[in-house]
Amino acid sequence: MSLISHPLKPCNNQIFFITSRLLHSSKPTSILSQNRVEKLISSQSDPLLAKEIFDLASIQPNFHPSYSTFHSLILKLAHTRHFSHVNSLLAQLKSRNYPISPSLFSRLIRVYGETNHPEKALKMFHTILEFNTKPLPRHLNAILRVLVARRGFLRPALDLFRSAHRYGVLANVESYNVLMSAFCLNGDLSIAYKLFNEMFKRDLVPDVESYRIVMQGLCRRSQVSKAADLLEDMLNKGFVPDALSYTTLLNSLCRKKKLREAYKLLCRMKVKGCNPDIVHYNTLIFGFCRENKAVHAIKVLEDMYRNGCLPNLVSYRTLVGGLCNQGLYDDANKYTKEMIRKGFSPHFSVFHVLIKGLCNVGKIEEACELLVEMLKFGEAPHVDTWAEIVAQICDAEDEVLRVEDTLKKLLKVEIKPHTKIVEAGAGLEEYMNRKIQTRRKKF
Protein backbone atom coordinates (compact mmCIF):
# COMPACT_ATOMS: atom_id res chain seq x y z
CA MET A 1 0.00 0.00 0.00
CA SER A 2 1.11 3.57 -0.62
CA LEU A 3 2.49 5.57 2.26
CA ILE A 4 0.87 8.64 0.73
CA SER A 5 -2.65 7.26 0.87
CA HIS A 6 -2.09 5.27 4.05
CA PRO A 7 0.34 7.29 6.16
CA LEU A 8 -0.55 5.35 9.32
CA LYS A 9 0.85 2.03 8.09
CA PRO A 10 4.62 2.36 8.52
CA CYS A 11 6.71 -0.68 9.41
CA ASN A 12 8.17 1.11 12.44
CA ASN A 13 8.10 4.44 14.22
CA GLN A 14 11.24 5.74 12.56
CA ILE A 15 9.87 5.24 9.03
CA PHE A 16 6.55 6.78 10.05
CA PHE A 17 8.25 9.82 11.55
CA ILE A 18 10.60 10.42 8.63
CA THR A 19 8.04 9.84 5.88
CA SER A 20 5.58 12.12 7.68
CA ARG A 21 8.17 14.86 7.72
CA LEU A 22 8.89 14.23 4.04
CA LEU A 23 5.18 14.59 3.23
CA HIS A 24 4.43 17.67 5.28
CA SER A 25 7.60 19.71 5.33
CA SER A 26 9.92 21.06 2.68
CA LYS A 27 12.27 22.69 5.18
CA PRO A 28 15.57 20.91 5.78
CA THR A 29 15.84 19.56 9.28
CA SER A 30 18.41 17.39 11.00
CA ILE A 31 16.11 14.41 10.82
CA LEU A 32 15.82 14.84 7.06
CA SER A 33 19.55 14.82 6.51
CA GLN A 34 20.50 13.09 3.30
CA ASN A 35 22.68 10.60 5.13
CA ARG A 36 19.84 9.54 7.42
CA VAL A 37 17.36 9.03 4.61
CA GLU A 38 19.88 7.05 2.57
CA LYS A 39 20.59 4.77 5.51
CA LEU A 40 16.87 4.21 5.95
CA ILE A 41 16.47 3.28 2.27
CA SER A 42 19.46 0.93 2.34
CA SER A 43 18.38 -0.84 5.52
CA GLN A 44 14.75 -1.32 4.42
CA SER A 45 14.04 -5.00 3.73
CA ASP A 46 10.89 -4.32 1.69
CA PRO A 47 12.16 -3.10 -1.71
CA LEU A 48 8.86 -1.44 -2.68
CA LEU A 49 8.74 0.46 0.59
CA ALA A 50 12.37 1.47 0.08
CA LYS A 51 11.46 2.71 -3.41
CA GLU A 52 8.53 4.72 -2.07
CA ILE A 53 10.73 6.36 0.57
CA PHE A 54 13.24 7.11 -2.17
CA ASP A 55 10.53 8.69 -4.34
CA LEU A 56 9.20 10.79 -1.45
CA ALA A 57 12.69 11.96 -0.55
CA SER A 58 13.52 12.75 -4.18
CA ILE A 59 10.77 15.36 -4.46
CA GLN A 60 12.29 17.30 -1.58
CA PRO A 61 14.38 20.23 -2.87
CA ASN A 62 17.31 19.55 -0.55
CA PHE A 63 17.61 15.81 -1.21
CA HIS A 64 20.09 14.61 -3.82
CA PRO A 65 20.45 10.81 -3.72
CA SER A 66 23.97 9.51 -3.98
CA TYR A 67 25.09 6.86 -6.42
CA SER A 68 25.41 4.32 -3.58
CA THR A 69 21.71 4.81 -2.79
CA PHE A 70 20.76 4.17 -6.42
CA HIS A 71 23.06 1.14 -6.47
CA SER A 72 21.59 -0.41 -3.33
CA LEU A 73 17.97 0.23 -4.33
CA ILE A 74 18.40 -1.06 -7.90
CA LEU A 75 19.80 -4.37 -6.65
CA LYS A 76 17.02 -4.71 -4.04
CA LEU A 77 14.41 -4.32 -6.75
CA ALA A 78 16.21 -6.56 -9.24
CA HIS A 79 16.49 -9.45 -6.78
CA THR A 80 12.72 -9.27 -6.19
CA ARG A 81 11.99 -9.06 -9.94
CA HIS A 82 10.64 -5.51 -9.95
CA PHE A 83 12.34 -4.90 -13.28
CA SER A 84 10.25 -1.92 -14.38
CA HIS A 85 11.46 0.00 -11.31
CA VAL A 86 15.01 -1.04 -12.12
CA ASN A 87 14.72 0.44 -15.62
CA SER A 88 13.23 3.63 -14.18
CA LEU A 89 16.12 4.09 -11.75
CA LEU A 90 18.69 3.35 -14.46
CA ALA A 91 17.07 6.03 -16.58
CA GLN A 92 17.42 8.46 -13.68
CA LEU A 93 21.07 7.55 -13.28
CA LYS A 94 21.61 8.20 -16.96
CA SER A 95 19.86 11.58 -16.87
CA ARG A 96 21.94 12.65 -13.86
CA ASN A 97 25.17 11.59 -15.62
CA TYR A 98 26.35 9.58 -12.64
CA PRO A 99 29.52 7.54 -13.25
CA ILE A 100 28.38 3.95 -12.81
CA SER A 101 30.57 1.28 -11.28
CA PRO A 102 31.16 -1.78 -13.49
CA SER A 103 30.02 -4.04 -10.64
CA LEU A 104 26.41 -2.82 -10.97
CA PHE A 105 26.13 -4.12 -14.54
CA SER A 106 27.85 -7.39 -13.63
CA ARG A 107 25.45 -8.00 -10.78
CA LEU A 108 22.38 -7.08 -12.80
CA ILE A 109 23.39 -9.48 -15.57
CA ARG A 110 23.80 -12.26 -12.99
CA VAL A 111 20.45 -11.43 -11.37
CA TYR A 112 18.68 -11.61 -14.73
CA GLY A 113 20.35 -14.96 -15.31
CA GLU A 114 19.35 -16.28 -11.87
CA THR A 115 15.75 -15.22 -12.46
CA ASN A 116 15.70 -16.95 -15.87
CA HIS A 117 15.58 -13.81 -18.00
CA PRO A 118 18.44 -14.26 -20.52
CA GLU A 119 16.89 -11.72 -22.91
CA LYS A 120 16.95 -9.03 -20.21
CA ALA A 121 20.53 -9.98 -19.35
CA LEU A 122 21.55 -9.58 -22.99
CA LYS A 123 19.76 -6.24 -23.18
CA MET A 124 21.55 -5.12 -20.02
CA PHE A 125 24.89 -5.89 -21.67
CA HIS A 126 23.96 -3.60 -24.58
CA THR A 127 22.70 -0.97 -22.12
CA ILE A 128 26.25 -0.48 -20.86
CA LEU A 129 27.05 1.37 -24.08
CA GLU A 130 24.25 3.86 -23.39
CA PHE A 131 26.19 5.11 -20.37
CA ASN A 132 29.15 6.17 -22.48
CA THR A 133 31.32 3.35 -21.17
CA LYS A 134 32.79 0.20 -22.65
CA PRO A 135 31.90 -3.26 -21.42
CA LEU A 136 34.70 -5.06 -19.62
CA PRO A 137 35.73 -8.70 -20.11
CA ARG A 138 33.96 -9.55 -16.85
CA HIS A 139 30.69 -8.20 -18.33
CA LEU A 140 31.19 -10.32 -21.44
CA ASN A 141 31.95 -13.41 -19.36
CA ALA A 142 28.95 -12.78 -17.12
CA ILE A 143 26.52 -12.58 -20.05
CA LEU A 144 28.14 -15.58 -21.75
CA ARG A 145 27.59 -17.67 -18.59
CA VAL A 146 23.93 -16.64 -18.51
CA LEU A 147 23.37 -17.47 -22.18
CA VAL A 148 25.19 -20.81 -22.36
CA ALA A 149 23.24 -22.07 -19.33
CA ARG A 150 20.28 -22.37 -21.72
CA ARG A 151 20.67 -24.58 -24.76
CA GLY A 152 18.54 -22.30 -26.94
CA PHE A 153 20.98 -19.44 -26.39
CA LEU A 154 24.22 -21.20 -27.35
CA ARG A 155 24.30 -19.65 -30.82
CA PRO A 156 23.46 -16.13 -29.57
CA ALA A 157 26.29 -16.56 -27.06
CA LEU A 158 28.71 -17.49 -29.84
CA ASP A 159 27.50 -14.58 -31.98
CA LEU A 160 28.02 -12.14 -29.11
CA PHE A 161 31.46 -13.62 -28.49
CA ARG A 162 32.39 -13.10 -32.14
CA SER A 163 31.13 -9.51 -32.23
CA ALA A 164 32.42 -8.44 -28.80
CA HIS A 165 35.32 -6.50 -30.33
CA ARG A 166 32.78 -4.10 -31.86
CA TYR A 167 31.88 -3.02 -28.34
CA GLY A 168 35.49 -2.43 -27.44
CA VAL A 169 35.88 -5.57 -25.36
CA LEU A 170 38.22 -8.44 -26.18
CA ALA A 171 37.49 -11.97 -25.11
CA ASN A 172 39.97 -13.51 -22.67
CA VAL A 173 40.82 -17.11 -21.73
CA GLU A 174 37.84 -17.26 -19.38
CA SER A 175 35.54 -16.29 -22.24
CA TYR A 176 36.86 -19.16 -24.32
CA ASN A 177 36.55 -21.57 -21.41
CA VAL A 178 32.89 -20.67 -20.86
CA LEU A 179 32.02 -21.36 -24.48
CA MET A 180 34.18 -24.47 -24.85
CA SER A 181 32.62 -26.04 -21.77
CA ALA A 182 29.10 -25.31 -23.04
CA PHE A 183 29.70 -26.73 -26.51
CA CYS A 184 31.42 -29.82 -25.12
CA LEU A 185 28.45 -30.51 -22.86
CA ASN A 186 26.15 -29.98 -25.83
CA GLY A 187 28.08 -32.52 -27.89
CA ASP A 188 29.53 -29.93 -30.30
CA LEU A 189 33.12 -31.00 -29.77
CA SER A 190 34.31 -29.66 -33.13
CA ILE A 191 33.33 -26.10 -32.19
CA ALA A 192 35.00 -26.43 -28.78
CA TYR A 193 38.17 -27.78 -30.39
CA LYS A 194 38.16 -24.93 -32.91
CA LEU A 195 37.87 -22.38 -30.12
CA PHE A 196 40.72 -24.04 -28.25
CA ASN A 197 43.06 -23.80 -31.24
CA GLU A 198 41.90 -20.25 -31.92
CA MET A 199 43.40 -19.10 -28.62
CA PHE A 200 46.91 -19.87 -29.86
CA LYS A 201 46.30 -17.81 -33.01
CA ARG A 202 45.27 -14.88 -30.84
CA ASP A 203 48.38 -15.26 -28.67
CA LEU A 204 46.24 -16.25 -25.72
CA VAL A 205 47.70 -18.96 -23.50
CA PRO A 206 45.14 -21.61 -22.54
CA ASP A 207 45.14 -22.42 -18.85
CA VAL A 208 44.77 -25.75 -17.04
CA GLU A 209 40.97 -25.42 -17.16
CA SER A 210 41.08 -24.95 -20.94
CA TYR A 211 42.95 -28.20 -21.41
CA ARG A 212 40.73 -30.06 -18.96
CA ILE A 213 37.52 -28.90 -20.66
CA VAL A 214 38.66 -30.21 -24.04
CA MET A 215 40.00 -33.42 -22.48
CA GLN A 216 36.63 -34.05 -20.86
CA GLY A 217 34.89 -33.43 -24.16
CA LEU A 218 37.19 -35.88 -25.94
CA CYS A 219 36.70 -38.52 -23.26
CA ARG A 220 32.92 -38.20 -23.47
CA ARG A 221 33.23 -39.03 -27.16
CA SER A 222 35.53 -41.98 -26.34
CA GLN A 223 38.48 -40.27 -28.03
CA VAL A 224 40.81 -41.27 -25.21
CA SER A 225 43.99 -41.31 -27.31
CA LYS A 226 43.48 -37.66 -28.32
CA ALA A 227 42.81 -36.76 -24.70
CA ALA A 228 46.06 -38.46 -23.68
CA ASP A 229 47.92 -36.55 -26.41
CA LEU A 230 46.44 -33.33 -25.08
CA LEU A 231 47.71 -34.17 -21.61
CA GLU A 232 51.19 -34.74 -23.04
CA ASP A 233 51.01 -31.40 -24.82
CA MET A 234 49.95 -29.82 -21.57
CA LEU A 235 52.95 -31.32 -19.74
CA ASN A 236 55.36 -30.35 -22.51
CA LYS A 237 54.25 -26.74 -22.23
CA GLY A 238 55.07 -26.73 -18.52
CA PHE A 239 51.53 -26.96 -17.13
CA VAL A 240 50.81 -29.02 -14.04
CA PRO A 241 47.49 -30.80 -14.71
CA ASP A 242 45.05 -30.62 -11.84
CA ALA A 243 43.56 -33.64 -10.08
CA LEU A 244 40.34 -33.46 -12.11
CA SER A 245 42.24 -33.64 -15.41
CA TYR A 246 43.90 -36.87 -14.30
CA THR A 247 40.61 -38.25 -12.97
CA THR A 248 38.96 -37.62 -16.33
CA LEU A 249 41.65 -39.46 -18.25
CA LEU A 250 41.99 -42.32 -15.74
CA ASN A 251 38.24 -42.97 -15.86
CA SER A 252 38.25 -43.06 -19.64
CA LEU A 253 41.28 -45.34 -19.86
CA CYS A 254 39.66 -47.77 -17.44
CA ARG A 255 36.38 -47.72 -19.36
CA LYS A 256 38.31 -48.49 -22.55
CA LYS A 257 40.04 -51.35 -20.67
CA LYS A 258 43.44 -49.69 -21.12
CA LEU A 259 44.41 -50.57 -17.58
CA ARG A 260 48.15 -50.74 -18.16
CA GLU A 261 48.15 -47.20 -19.57
CA ALA A 262 45.99 -46.07 -16.66
CA TYR A 263 48.40 -47.53 -14.13
CA LYS A 264 51.38 -45.89 -15.87
CA LEU A 265 49.55 -42.57 -15.77
CA LEU A 266 48.89 -43.00 -12.06
CA CYS A 267 52.58 -43.63 -11.44
CA ARG A 268 53.56 -40.52 -13.45
CA MET A 269 51.27 -38.19 -11.55
CA LYS A 270 53.50 -37.70 -8.54
CA VAL A 271 56.57 -37.22 -10.73
CA LYS A 272 54.72 -34.50 -12.65
CA GLY A 273 53.73 -32.59 -9.53
CA CYS A 274 50.24 -33.90 -8.77
CA ASN A 275 49.94 -36.39 -5.90
CA PRO A 276 47.32 -39.08 -6.60
CA ASP A 277 44.39 -38.94 -4.21
CA ILE A 278 41.85 -41.50 -3.05
CA VAL A 279 39.65 -40.91 -6.12
CA HIS A 280 42.49 -41.75 -8.50
CA TYR A 281 43.45 -44.93 -6.66
CA ASN A 282 39.84 -46.11 -6.31
CA THR A 283 39.31 -45.52 -10.01
CA LEU A 284 42.11 -47.98 -10.78
CA ILE A 285 40.97 -50.49 -8.16
CA PHE A 286 37.48 -50.47 -9.64
CA GLY A 287 38.86 -50.75 -13.17
CA PHE A 288 41.02 -53.78 -12.36
CA CYS A 289 38.27 -55.53 -10.39
CA ARG A 290 35.73 -54.94 -13.14
CA GLU A 291 38.05 -56.70 -15.59
CA ASN A 292 38.66 -59.63 -13.20
CA LYS A 293 42.19 -58.51 -12.41
CA ALA A 294 41.79 -58.12 -8.66
CA VAL A 295 45.40 -59.17 -8.04
CA HIS A 296 46.51 -55.98 -9.79
CA ALA A 297 44.05 -54.06 -7.64
CA ILE A 298 45.93 -55.36 -4.58
CA LYS A 299 49.08 -53.81 -6.04
CA VAL A 300 47.28 -50.47 -6.32
CA LEU A 301 46.19 -50.75 -2.68
CA GLU A 302 49.80 -51.36 -1.64
CA ASP A 303 50.90 -48.32 -3.69
CA MET A 304 48.41 -46.24 -1.75
CA TYR A 305 50.11 -47.06 1.54
CA ARG A 306 53.55 -46.31 0.16
CA ASN A 307 52.41 -42.92 -1.13
CA GLY A 308 50.73 -41.94 2.12
CA CYS A 309 47.15 -42.26 0.86
CA LEU A 310 44.96 -44.36 3.14
CA PRO A 311 42.33 -46.69 1.62
CA ASN A 312 38.73 -45.88 2.47
CA LEU A 313 35.52 -47.88 2.64
CA VAL A 314 35.08 -47.83 -1.16
CA SER A 315 38.64 -49.12 -1.66
CA TYR A 316 38.09 -52.17 0.53
CA ARG A 317 34.56 -52.98 -0.60
CA THR A 318 35.56 -52.82 -4.26
CA LEU A 319 38.65 -54.96 -3.71
CA VAL A 320 36.91 -57.61 -1.59
CA GLY A 321 34.06 -57.84 -4.08
CA GLY A 322 36.53 -58.24 -6.96
CA LEU A 323 38.47 -60.95 -5.14
CA CYS A 324 35.29 -62.88 -4.34
CA ASN A 325 34.16 -62.70 -7.95
CA GLN A 326 37.41 -64.42 -8.95
CA GLY A 327 37.19 -67.03 -6.20
CA LEU A 328 40.19 -65.62 -4.31
CA TYR A 329 38.48 -66.10 -0.97
CA ASP A 330 41.63 -66.25 1.18
CA ASP A 331 42.75 -62.83 -0.05
CA ALA A 332 39.19 -61.52 0.26
CA ASN A 333 39.02 -62.80 3.84
CA LYS A 334 42.35 -61.14 4.62
CA TYR A 335 41.28 -57.71 3.38
CA THR A 336 37.84 -58.01 4.96
CA LYS A 337 39.45 -58.51 8.36
CA GLU A 338 41.83 -55.63 7.66
CA MET A 339 38.84 -53.54 6.71
CA ILE A 340 37.11 -54.34 10.00
CA ARG A 341 40.26 -53.63 12.03
CA LYS A 342 40.38 -50.15 10.50
CA GLY A 343 36.80 -49.49 11.61
CA PHE A 344 35.13 -49.77 8.21
CA SER A 345 31.80 -51.54 7.96
CA PRO A 346 31.56 -54.06 5.12
CA HIS A 347 28.14 -54.21 3.54
CA PHE A 348 26.21 -57.34 4.50
CA SER A 349 26.27 -58.36 0.84
CA VAL A 350 30.10 -58.44 0.93
CA PHE A 351 29.98 -60.66 4.01
CA HIS A 352 27.42 -62.93 2.40
CA VAL A 353 29.37 -63.46 -0.81
CA LEU A 354 32.58 -64.13 1.09
CA ILE A 355 31.00 -66.48 3.65
CA LYS A 356 29.20 -68.36 0.90
CA GLY A 357 32.43 -68.66 -1.04
CA LEU A 358 34.37 -69.95 1.95
CA CYS A 359 31.63 -72.52 2.60
CA ASN A 360 31.63 -73.65 -1.02
CA VAL A 361 35.35 -74.43 -0.88
CA GLY A 362 34.99 -76.27 2.43
CA LYS A 363 36.48 -73.57 4.65
CA ILE A 364 33.63 -73.68 7.15
CA GLU A 365 35.71 -72.73 10.14
CA GLU A 366 36.99 -69.59 8.43
CA ALA A 367 33.40 -68.75 7.48
CA CYS A 368 32.29 -69.12 11.10
CA GLU A 369 35.17 -66.96 12.31
CA LEU A 370 34.20 -64.28 9.82
CA LEU A 371 30.61 -64.43 11.03
CA VAL A 372 31.85 -63.94 14.60
CA GLU A 373 33.76 -60.84 13.46
CA MET A 374 30.64 -59.63 11.72
CA LEU A 375 28.56 -59.95 14.90
CA LYS A 376 31.23 -58.30 17.04
CA PHE A 377 31.22 -55.37 14.65
CA GLY A 378 27.46 -55.04 15.11
CA GLU A 379 26.53 -56.01 11.58
CA ALA A 380 23.28 -57.89 10.95
CA PRO A 381 23.89 -61.06 8.91
CA HIS A 382 21.34 -61.76 6.24
CA VAL A 383 19.05 -64.77 6.77
CA ASP A 384 20.68 -66.44 3.78
CA THR A 385 24.10 -66.01 5.43
CA TRP A 386 22.96 -67.88 8.56
CA ALA A 387 21.31 -70.57 6.48
CA GLU A 388 24.47 -71.02 4.41
CA ILE A 389 26.65 -71.71 7.45
CA VAL A 390 24.14 -73.88 9.30
CA ALA A 391 23.54 -75.93 6.17
CA GLN A 392 27.25 -76.59 5.75
CA ILE A 393 27.69 -77.53 9.41
CA CYS A 394 24.75 -79.92 9.38
CA ASP A 395 25.95 -81.58 6.16
CA ALA A 396 29.51 -81.99 7.39
CA GLU A 397 28.89 -84.33 10.32
CA ASP A 398 32.51 -85.43 10.49
CA GLU A 399 33.57 -81.82 11.07
CA VAL A 400 31.13 -81.05 13.85
CA LEU A 401 33.75 -81.46 16.54
CA ARG A 402 36.20 -79.25 14.66
CA VAL A 403 33.77 -76.34 14.40
CA GLU A 404 32.18 -76.85 17.80
CA ASP A 405 34.52 -74.41 19.51
CA THR A 406 33.86 -71.81 16.86
CA LEU A 407 30.10 -72.17 17.31
CA LYS A 408 30.46 -71.77 21.06
CA LYS A 409 32.30 -68.52 20.47
CA LEU A 410 29.55 -67.49 18.11
CA LEU A 411 26.84 -68.13 20.68
CA LYS A 412 28.70 -66.16 23.34
CA VAL A 413 28.75 -63.01 21.21
CA GLU A 414 26.57 -60.29 22.64
CA ILE A 415 23.68 -59.84 20.23
CA LYS A 416 22.85 -56.16 19.87
CA PRO A 417 19.31 -54.93 19.11
CA HIS A 418 20.10 -54.19 15.46
CA THR A 419 21.75 -57.58 14.87
CA LYS A 420 18.27 -59.02 14.15
CA ILE A 421 19.32 -62.62 14.70
CA VAL A 422 15.69 -63.46 15.52
CA GLU A 423 14.79 -62.90 11.87
CA ALA A 424 16.76 -66.04 11.01
CA GLY A 425 14.78 -68.16 13.46
CA ALA A 426 11.85 -69.18 11.30
CA GLY A 427 13.97 -70.08 8.30
CA LEU A 428 16.49 -72.01 10.37
CA GLU A 429 13.79 -73.91 12.25
CA GLU A 430 12.19 -75.00 9.00
CA TYR A 431 15.55 -76.12 7.68
CA MET A 432 16.40 -78.13 10.80
CA ASN A 433 12.98 -79.85 10.75
CA ARG A 434 13.62 -80.94 7.17
CA LYS A 435 17.03 -82.30 8.12
CA ILE A 436 15.59 -84.28 11.06
CA GLN A 437 12.81 -85.75 8.94
CA THR A 438 15.34 -86.76 6.28
CA ARG A 439 17.49 -88.59 8.84
CA ARG A 440 14.48 -90.39 10.32
CA LYS A 441 13.58 -91.74 6.92
CA LYS A 442 17.10 -93.12 6.54
CA PHE A 443 16.73 -95.10 9.74
TrEMBL record:
PPR repeats lie at residues 101-135, 172-206, 207-241, 242-276, 277-311, 312-346, 347-381. This is Pentacotripeptide-repeat region of PRORP domain-containing protein. The keyword Repeat applies. Pfam families: PPR, PPR_1, PPR_2. One of its GO terms (cellular component) is mitochondrion. PROSITE patterns: PPR. The keyword Cytoplasm does not apply. One of its GO terms (biological process) is mitochondrial respiratory chain complex I assembly. It comes from Daucus carota subsp. sativus (Carrot). Belongs to the PPR family. P subfamily. Keywords: Repeat. It comes from the Eukaryota.
